[in-house]
Task: inverse folding
DNA sequence: GCAAAAGTGTTCAATGTACACCCATGC
DNA sequence: GCATGGGTGTACATTGAACACTTTTGC
């Protein structure tokens, strides 16, 4: 049976919260196409690995981090999106707690890698990666409100103020402290620890941890 | 540059409401693999067409219908999902008003095509198509509640009772007539026509039409 | 004692849910 | 006149939004 074969890549939008900012990992390409432009990390899917494993492999190559929240975003496949030929990309996004990352790893001489603020991205990204980032931010914001993905961006122990900051940074708006805490409490997914965190000349904040190993999704939410 | 090339298909879950039932179009394979098993219609993406166009082409080949609501669902790509080799499939789902379909079209001698109730599917479908259908139903139910996709399953003019029936069939539960109408009214997307529909020995029902050409999605909902 | 962030409740508005009767028609 | 589905409103519960003061600490 004959059919056209097509290159399949995975591209990964890797989010983290750094310096009170929503940041995304970009790589600067040192080879054509789009030489010297910033892009989302990604690579070809190998014959014997699943899409998700390909994404996990790329993610680990870039960040050195395993066991990360990783979710398929969308598949982009316009015929001309890659000048090298017909290439379809399955986009994923990942959420990493900033404390887990020391430094992004640039793959040997292929490119450099660095964090960029989602709110001040380089002008024009390679391929259709502007579009992918747009879409990823939309999805992240959406899921933040209806699921507990936000917890993935924090270390195991965190204060409620830190959690609120994550929400504020991603949604890009101030939230009311009392309403926020009421909402989080109603989810019933946090354990209040008998530990506090001191930081500056004020009352110490109670540390909390996330109850569930697994994330909680309202039924049908993707 | 070397990379593994992979076959890319689109598979389409085509939903309609027929005989007060949520039905999906399946094709019976006449060739290996999965000979004589039912499958979702689909086919290989051609070199020069976008994923969505490939899906539209397949959809039209099966049903003869154009201008259909069509949305990307998810991309499935486990290495062993197709015994012929490494094939990744981008799944779509489509919603068709039953009045637009006369009869599904079986592609010449490749297979036969027929509608099946989502609630009484054949035992074991080809490939991972059970899983794809599961996922499609979840997505459909989810979007039904937060968007106006449901209107795509009705003809241009419809009664509120017909609309309610669509919701009840898909969600598989009874809804309260007054609350349903209040909710629909609050969406503000229907035009009450000066026409009625007589059907049986009772008060005729007012016909309505959908206001928007475009579908309405709350921001961020995918 | 004062600066700084932590922590905590109440009121009001909007939305969702439960529930029952009259209306227009064909026969 | 009766059987059938069409059409309508109100009371209550739940959820979301606005809003201000006391507590604990370091200096």
Result:
């Amino acid at each position: 049976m004959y059919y056209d074969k097509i290159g399949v890549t995975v591209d990964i939008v890797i989010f983290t919260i750094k310096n009170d900012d929503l940041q995304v990992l970009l790589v600067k390409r040192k080879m054509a196409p789009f030489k010297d432009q910033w892009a989302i990390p990604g690579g070809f899917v190998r014959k014997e690995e699943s899409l998700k494993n390909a994404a996990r492999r790329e993610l680990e190559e870039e960040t050195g981090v395993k066991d990360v929240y990783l979710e398929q975003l969308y598949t982009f496949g316009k015929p001309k999106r890659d000048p090298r030929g017909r290439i379809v990309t399955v986009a994923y996004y990942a959420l990493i707690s900033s404390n887990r990352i020391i430094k992004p790893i640039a793959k040997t001489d292929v490119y450099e890698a660095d964090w960029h603020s989602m709110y001040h991205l380089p002008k024009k990204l390679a391929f259709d990666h502007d579009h992918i980032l747009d879409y990823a931010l939309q999805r992240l914001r959406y899921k933040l409100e209806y699921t507990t993905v936000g917890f993935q961006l924090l270390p195991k122990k965190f204060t409620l103020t830190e959690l609120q900051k994550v929400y504020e940074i991603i949604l890009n708006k101030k939230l009311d402290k009392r309403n926020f805490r009421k909402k989080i409490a109603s989810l019933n997914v946090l354990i209040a620890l008998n530990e506090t965190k001191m930081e500056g000349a004020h009352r110490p904040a109670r540390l909390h941890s996330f109850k569930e190993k697994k994330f909680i999704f309202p039924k049908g939410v993707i």
Summary: Residues 176, 178-179, 182-183, 186, 198, 200-204 of chain B lie near DNA strand C (CB under 10 Å from a C1'). The first helix of chain B runs from residue 51 to 63. The first strand of chain B starts at residue 5 and ends at 18.
